[in-house]
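Archive entry. Fields below.
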Amino acid sequence: MSSYDTSASYPFGFLDEYAKKEVRRTTLKAVAIPGYQVPYSSREMPMGRGFGTGGLQLTLALIGKGETLKVIDQGSDDSVNAVNLRSFIEMTCQGIETTTLTDEADILQSRHRIPEKPLREDQLLVLQVPYPDPLVVVEPSEDKRKLLHGEADYSRLLVKLYEDIVKFNEITISHRYPTRINDHYVIDPSPIPRWDVLKINQSKALILFGAGREKKIYAVPPYTKAEPLAFEDVPFRVEDFTDEKGQRRVCKRCNCKSSFLDEFVDSKTGEKVYQCSDTDWCNEQLVLKTDIEEAEAVNG
Amino acid sequence: MGYVAIKGGGQAIEGTKQVFDYLRTRQGDTSVPLDTSTIENQLRLLHSRVISEGGVYHPRLASLAIKQAQGDTLEAAFALRAYRSTQPRLVETPALNTGEMRITRRISSAFKDIPGGQMLGATTDYHLRLMRLELLNESPEQFSEIAKSWFSGIDVDVIPDTFPKVLEGLRAEGLLPEIDQRTRGQVPFDITREPLIFPVSRSAALATMTRAEQGSLLAMAYSNMRGYGDVHPTVAELRVGYLPVLLPHPITGDLTEIGEVEVTECEVIAMYESNEANDKPTFTLGYGVCFGHNEVKAISMAILDRALQKGMKDGPTNPSEDPEFVLLHVDGIDSMGFCSHYKMPHYVTFQSDMDRLRKTQQKQDVKEPVV
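PREDICTED_STRUCTURE:
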């Protein structure tokens, strides 16, 4: 038997050229029909289905030499999954740069968060999606859901929201909040918190959604209307970070009062503490805070 | 701080790789690394399963996948599938004829005797599942003696390579439906290049099931056998062997054998259905085939094929007849990946969950009258 070449030589971006071409063509269609879930064949990636293979295929098909990538998970660059994805992309895409700074990135791949800092027109946000279809909670059959989307028939989803109000006096959808794009298709904006949903509306950056396991790509083009489903008298509400006294909680590390916070228990003191979920944002605020403190020290 | 758990991800991942690899080697001084040919031969049924679920016929890499996955079939099939994503599809073979298979086993439970005869071949079907304690201390000499003496006393020249198919006889008698001429020459649906958009063709369903996870297929088929369905199959023929793969010669264009793949094929017959067009009633068929030697998978697939055909025609009346239910839930790579993903951090979404719960609790508190 002939000996095997044991040196791993993968094509740029891991996928073969036909696969990347398919992802790009699917993406063009997705941009042309905002919010419409475009099916594509979705190759198996060397990480688990559910770990961001849809986002990964988008990034691999769209990134080119000389471009800079940021990968985050739960807002953090150092979360295990983000590290894993980043090192895989670095390994298979020679000639790209990676960064943790939101400002520096051309492409941002994210799971569960949109960065706090508003994105620019020249940036591209890729979100990883586990469930692409918001109608799945009211209709299990994909065939039937396709029909409902085509007719923009979201009445059953609205009934679900209404039933929530009747039962709990509050809409109970916490994340993956159904959001209507450009007055037609309702999308599942991926498991971002409600906090981030408003950032999709009229976003300057193109936002692409990749669902690898479910084999769908969809998009919200720049400057496109994105409205979370709600009622006139029951408005959409983001996560509330006020404490018992009615004060806005602040990040323990950088004192930021306007960011989405992670809540955890300090293992030493047993105290409940809050910290920015977006680590790059937190670092930037920390620098500002230190600058102010230093200036105060000098002036004071 | 508790926060540290998800920080330092890079180092942690490196550490898990090392300890995972250590566990492979910790057997001690007497251990030798598994070589891939040992896996392919001594664990051939495990190998069959992985090559079938991996969906690419590469025996050597399938063995490597088993070795590096330390025997986890889902992981091994996964590695093989991911390798497949790096390979372009260059050519398509014409439809291959399983009548030409070099047979190692073929049986029919529909007839006592079949043309060419029943050939049991290698099976555990009639073994007593007793512990063969002698294998605990098998010497290399005893081991190689088995292979050496196997062919002595067998006249290998009289054994035919191929056997006629059982279904041919039934078809000639008019007990089976005519071959649907409309599907002849149709290009089969390629699930590796196109997503499933329902309703899907039968070829798409067959392709999905042939690389499905064996346990998932079995569970769905078993639900039909037990009563959530009514296929009541009879195995017309189950055959295992090597199927010649043909491609047109690059210069002459003649079909030329380029190699062979081991497959298991099963055809089940189910009871006839009344025909609306008042044609003569016939038996109905279910078809299953997969890479490697994997009989439970081929039979399960054949039963599900029959069940799905009914569901596609008359609408599903139970889960195993529903194409979406079956086809979107039998892939091992998809399902294990998604199951594993729940181990990843989810604290942002959980924060949102807590926010909703606290809010609704607050509202409940306000509503409750103070006594």
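CURATOR_NOTE: Residues 8-84 of chain B form one domain.
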